[in-house]
Amino acid sequence: MRPKDLRDLSDDELARKLHETRQELFNLRFQSATGALENPARLKHAKREIARILTVRTERESAVETR
């Protein structure tokens, strides 16, 4: 997802998306360790997606603190 799309999500939806993406990364790492991973680029994509979600969450937290 794009950062703009992530910013449009509610806090609960963002937390759910983070959980799902972390679960996906876990599964991809497991597949990589067993040699069953077909597309290694998905690992990088999942890591970046998690970073985007955490960035949006941090932006929201800092916006609340400055009020």
Count of extended strands: 0
Q: Report the end-to-end length measured between terminal Cα atoms.
A: 28 Å
What's the total helix number? Answer: 3
> What spatial form do the alpha-carbon principal axes imply?
elongated
Largest sheet: none
Helix and strand composition category: mainly alpha
Overall tally of domains: 1
Helix/strand order: HHH
Task: Provide a quick synopsis of the model.
The protein has 67 residues and is mostly helical. The chain has helices spanning 3-7, 11-34, 41-65.
Tell me about this structure.
The chain is built from 3 helices and no strands. It is mostly helical and 67 residues long. It has one domain: Helix Hairpins. It starts with a helix and ends with a helix.
Descriptive tags:
67 residues, mainly alpha, Helix Hairpins
Write the layout of secondary structure elements.
Layout: H1 3-7, H2 11-34, H3 41-65
Helix pairs in contact: 2-3
